[in-house]
Specification:
Layout lengths: L10 E7 L14 E2 L3 E2 L25 H5 L12 E8 L26 E8 L4 H19 L4 H9 L5 E9 L6 E4 L7 H7 L5 E8 L1 H7 L6 E9 L3 E7 L13 E8 L4 E8 L2 E4 L4 E2 L10 E8 L11 E4 L11 H4 L2 H4 L15 E7 L3 H4 L10 H4 L4 H4 L1 H14 L4 E8 H14 L2 E7 L7 E8 L12 E4 L17 H11 L1 H10 L3 E8 L6 E8 L7 H21 L3 E7 L7 H8 L1 E2 L6 H7 L22 E2 L8 E2 L9 E3 L6 E3 L2 E5 L4 E5 L5 H5 L16 E6 L8
Parallel strand pairs: 1-9, 2-10, 17-18, 23-24
Antiparallel strand pairs: 1-4, 3-16, 4-5, 6-7, 6-8, 8-9, 10-11, 11-14, 12-13, 12-15, 15-16, 17-32, 18-20, 19-20, 21-22, 22-23, 24-30, 25-26, 27-30, 28-29, 31-32
Helix pairs in contact: 11-12, 13-14, 15-16
Length: about 725
């Protein structure tokens, strides 16, 4: 090689052979990165693709088998695309490079600032054609970025330039980093050439000259030669996701979590956290702001790493959150429960198996229910009269709910009305970092993307296999086909008969309702006791008590079937959309609901999903009785775990036209002894802000928290 064969590079070419699922020219490698990017060098000197690299290019592996494994199973180049990112370092960073002509004047296309071009080429295209296209793009980009070249650039754009582009590919000595051996490979396809580069260090020289343009303004036609280090399929960040796409409100004591994904065998993604540009936490996907961070910006530096092969240098990405850290608003519920948010003394020296079990249930108000997304920017009618969209927006409200959940330090957390997006980007990650395991299931109602999420503290319970995280679709429990021969749950036959007689009812429960039941057995760590945790959310409609009663009956039967597989206590949590004195609650507490109890008959005959079930000449097309339902003696007695029945757990609309009810419950079997429960707000507390939700209460339901004694439980079989 000539004098250009130095170990100092003018830039780098990063080639990425795209996976089979990205077989189109429009594929965006960073399609799942929506955040506000920033220059990584603002956080760490030398970070990012445009920063000047060390003289020796980082190699993947000298083992061809290892190199081939980076993109997984080999696949035909006829089906692939290759992305090429060409980075030219700033002029000041190009040590040892000859950029002058014979007259000593600067060559015309040397940029003072870093330059980047992006290309996407078919993998079957020859390398020669790709490099020629690369040279043309480089010449144009560098010409446009040179301040004194405006005249030349206009001339370049005004005509069909015959650009002379010569490219030479060199194999690089792995030890010295010096290009030593020319490699005649331009006839190879992109796929073959860049595949070779995965395990063979390469350098590419591109010489650009435009004699015509030089003659136009009288300058010498000195070639501009740039030498690039080549990296093929380096560790690459493809996903950086956080709640609400970086626009979430940031509060002290509320954890921020980011999720990352990489490609090309990146074993690890290191996330460093910066506050006002200062590194405060390293190698963690989660950071919790403090009071000292108030008024400051938060940013992250993401480094993908391939252990033993690539340290991620030069591959970093940086992102900054859109909002500054702001003071945590007052939470009325937490202000009423100072003893519940104080550090738990039973956690100071590890979790004892006889420590009280702390249980929380909370309907968090799904974002899709807080807003009417059918009309842009319109707030749901229930809250529009006294709340602004700013108070209800998920970026503000959901971090406050997360803070409330974590502040209670519960061992078991049952949530309802959880948006699927909120679970995936906020609750799941934040609670995992707080020591919880859990799972989520969305309702299967048409248009619904919210459901139940159940979590438990991993320091209190043994690991739970995925197969034990059960999610049951309640409508699948209904006896649609025929009567059963179950000798214990005899009311199943009455329900089957009713469904057979009433096509309207059958249509509603089979086609319209997608409510779910979570059921998971938790074995106490260091003990053999098992607790069956059930979490559900029943049908909401005020005129559908008959449907809620059937749903609850079937839930109890499912619990009974689970107890046959493993003995244990029962914790039943959820939004029942009913008090314990109405039909579903009466079934649990009194174990029997008489025929046509309260409004069962009226609701059975009057509730309609659509007009097709109503006769034109009569407001009620049916005149049926609702049968008596009772629990068998084998099913455990359940009781409320709360010290006293709350006056309400749900209150919307205000005093004059509002609705309030005790809809949320925690019930336990006799072997779990209720000890205490968290204080509840009064009507005076809530109506100070008209109703719920409000600036001080982030949901339209109040969270319930209680503790029960497990020492009376017997060991599980």
């Amino acid at each position: 090689m000539t004098s250009k064969a130095t170990a100092t590079y003018d830039g780098r070419i990063v080639a990425r052979i795209l996976p089979p699922n990205a077989c189109n020219a429009a594929f965006d490698l960073h399609h799942d990165i929506r955040g506000p990017r920033m220059d990584p060098t603002l956080l760490k000197a030398g970070a990012g693709y445009l920063a000047h690299r060390a003289s020796v290019p980082i190699t993947q592996s000298t083992d061809a088998a290892v190199g081939a494994s980076l993109i997984g199973t080999e696949y035909s180049s006829e089906q692939n695309w290759t992305t090429l990112d060409v980075y030219v370092y700033p002029q000041s960073a190009r040590g040892g490079m000859d950029t002058t002509g014979s007259s000593g004047e600067s060559s015309s296309v040397v940029a003072a600032t870093a330059t980047h071009i992006h290309m996407q080429r078919h993998s079957s295209e020859t390398l020669e054609k790709t490099l020629a296209r690369m040279g043309l793009s480089l010449f144009k980009k560098l010409s446009e970025s040179t301040k004194h070249c405006h005249k030349r650039t206009r001339a370049y754009k005004a005509r069909n330039t015959q650009l002379s582009c010569n490219a030479t590919i060199w194999k690089v000595d792995p030890e010295s980093g010096v290009p030593t051996t020319p490699w005649d490979c331009q006839s190879l396809t992109n796929y073959d050439a860049w595949s070779e580069a995965r395990y063979t260090p390469l350098a590419i020289q591109i010489s650009l000259v435009d004699v015509e343009l030089s003659e136009m303004d009288g300058s010498s036609s000195v070639p501009q030669t740039l030498t690039f280090a080549v990296e093929s399929c380096p560790p690459t960040v493809t996903t950086v996701r956080t709640f609400s796409d970086w626009e979430s409100y940031l509060y002290p004591s509320v954890p921020i979590v980011v999720q990352t994904e990489t490609m090309y065998k990146s074993d690890q993604c290191m996330v460093d956290w910066y506050v006002n540009g200062q590194l405060l936490q390293s190698n963690s996907h989660s950071y919790t702001p403090t009071e000292a961070d108030l008024g400051k910006s938060v940013a992250i530096l993401v480094t993908p790493i391939r252990k033993g092969q690539h340290d991620g240098a030069g591959c970093q990405e940086a992102y900054q959150f859109s909002t500054l850290v702001q003071p945590l608003p007052e939470n009325l519920i937490l202000s009423l429960r100072p003893k519940w948010i104080a550090p738990r003394c039973d956690r100071s020296s590890g979790e004892a198996s006889d420590a009280p079990l702390r249980i929380m249930t909370y309907n968090v108000l799904a974002d899709q229910n807080a807003f009417d997304f059918g009309v842009s920017g319109k707030v749901a009618h229930s809250y529009a009269e006294y709340l602004t969209p700013q108070v209800l927006k998920r970026e503000r409200r959901l971090p406050l709910i997360l803070h409330e959940i974590l502040a209670h330090q519960a061992d078991v957390v049952c949530l309802q009305e959880v948006d699927e997006y909120v679970y995936e980007t906020l609750f799941k990650s934040a609670l995992r970092y707080a020591g919880y395991d859990g799972f989520f299931t969305s309702k299967e109602n048409e248009g619904s993307r919210e459901g139940c999420a159940t979590f438990w503290l991993t320091t209190r319970f043994d690991p739970v296999p995925e197969s034990n995280k059960k999610s049951h679709l309640i409508r699948d429990m209904f006896p649609f086909e025929s009567k059963t021969d179950d000798q214990e749950w005899t009311a199943l036959n009455d329900i089957a008969g009713l469904l057979g007689k009433r096509r309207d009812l059958r249509y509603i429960v089979a086609a319209k309702l997608g409510h779910i039941l979570h059921l998971v057995p938790l074995q106490v760590k260091g003990d053999t006791k098992t607790i069956w945790v059930a979490n559900t959310h029943l049908f909401y409609h005020p005129d559908a008590s008959h449907i809620r009663l059937m749903q609850m009956y079937l839930i109890c039967r499912e619990l009974s079937e689970s107890l046959k597989t493993k003995d244990g206590g029962i914790v039943l949590c959820g939004d029942m959309n009913s008090s314990l004195t109405n039909s579903p609650g009466k079934l649990l507490i009194d174990r029997i609901v008489p025929k046509n109890f309260r409004n069962l008959r009226t609701d059975l005959n009057g509730f309609r999903w659509s007009r097709q079930w109503r006769q034109p000449d009569s407001p009620n097309a049916f005149d049926d009785d609702f049968p008596s339902l009772s629990l068998p003696d084998s099913f455990p007695i359940l009781r409320s775990a709360l010290s006293e029945t709350p006056a309400f757990t749900h209150f919307i609309g205000g005093l004059e036209r509002g609705f309030r009810g005790t809809l949320d419950h925690i019930l336990v079997s006799p072997d779990l002894i209720p000890l205490k429960s968290g204080p509840m707000p009064s009507m005076r507390d809530v109506t100070r802000d008209t109703a719920m939700p409000s600036e001080r209460i982030p949901s339209d339901h109040v969270s319930l928290i209680c503790e029960v004694d497990m020492t009376k439980m017997s060991s599980s079989r």
